[in-house]
């Protein structure tokens, strides 16, 4: 994989607001093959027992990987998730934002595989680890 950046943070945020306005998280960093998103947590993200819900973590991880992929291939709105595996490792802090650090592992002609590390802001222990695959329409 070459390391050229196709979309910077500002272009990414503008693209997401236009093409995918329901996206979750705040785009903190974008580099070629990498993104960092931050999701502030409030009571709407909590499940019984006062922990951050699985769907909150999964949505954030999915968007983080989408951003990392677009940083590499450019604004391809129809890149879609085809496989998503999450391992919940530790209880997230309910009083801190969740951070999602996504990176690409392999880029083929039609499939891109990446991983996402999720952790509570300011903490080092992972709360979840994701490996996912995206299908990318043919690039022109």
Automatic annotation (TrEMBL):
Domain Thioesterase: 49-124
Coiled-coil spans in chain: none
Pfam family, one: 4HBT
Transmembrane segment boundaries: none
Protein name as annotated: Thioesterase domain-containing protein
């Amino acid at each position: 994989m070459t390391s050229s950046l196709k979309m910077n943070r500002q272009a990414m945020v503008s693209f997401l607001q236009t093409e995918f306005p329901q996206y979750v998280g705040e785009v903190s960093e974008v580099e070629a093959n990498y993104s960092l998103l931050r999701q502030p947590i409030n009571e709407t993200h909590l499940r019984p027992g006062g922990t951050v819900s699985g769907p909150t973590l999964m949505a954030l991880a999915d968007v983080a990987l989408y951003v990392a992929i677009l940083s590499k291939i450019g604004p391809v709105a129809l890149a879609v998730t085809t496989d998503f595996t999450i391992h919940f490792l530790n209880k997230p802090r309910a009083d801190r934002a969740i951070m999602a650090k996504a990176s690409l592992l392999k880029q083929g002609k039609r499939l891109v595989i990446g991983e996402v590390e999720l952790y509570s802001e300011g903490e080092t222990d992972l709360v979840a680890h994701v490996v996912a695959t995206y299908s990318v329409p043919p690039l022109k």
